[in-house]
Amino acid sequence: MYAKRFDGRGFHDLRPMIAKVGVIPRADGSAFFQIGKTTAYAAVYGPRDLFPKFKQNPSTGILRCNYNMMPFSGHGDRVKPGGSRRSKEINMVMEKALLPVLDLTDYPNSVVDVFIELPQTDAGTRCAGITAASMALADAGLAMKDLVAAVAVGKVGDKVVSDLIYDEEAYEEEGGATDIPVAVLPRSGMVSLLQLDGGISAPDLRKALELARDKCREIYDVQKAALKQRFVEVHK
User: Fold this and answer.
1) Tens digit of pLDDT for each residue in 223-233?
2) Could you give the 3-state DSSP secondary structure of residue 163?
């Protein structure tokens, strides 16, 4: 049995969160999101002309994400700088997680670039990146029908838990660990990202998804508070 979490939290508790908007002056929109020891900066540039031209879409703009973990950001071995298969996969899932809230039809043949940098990590990196990117897109003034909040839920041993840390992802006792990154549009409850690493029963998966929706609403409140604070600062 998994009787107590490594960091002492309740099984359904999130790590402490900090969110700020407008942290990179030269970007069109930017945000910072920290959950526990995982920190993500997101910067938005655009809409701007997309080159080479054969990549342009004459009916809508394109969203392009660039995810990067800094070399000494996390546990274990040093992260090799530059692109990798993992970073390309995360770029793709981030784009698909964020696109449902965006309307880029007013910007044909253009691109919106989102750069996500993670200087410190302790699991949940793609979820922190999506959460920060969503706030940065809102800060850039792009038309959005909702924000996107993301969290990793899963099963560690015999317990369904939220916001896994590295030690839980690496749990090797009986039952092992299952990691499920989930992104949610909080107002509708729509899921825009669902990945699963490991095995889990159907009843526990349903519990985990319901837990993810509930925790994403908590993250959504933190996102909204950061955006409201930014609005107050800009209009002083």
Assistant:
1) 999 999 999 98
2) coil
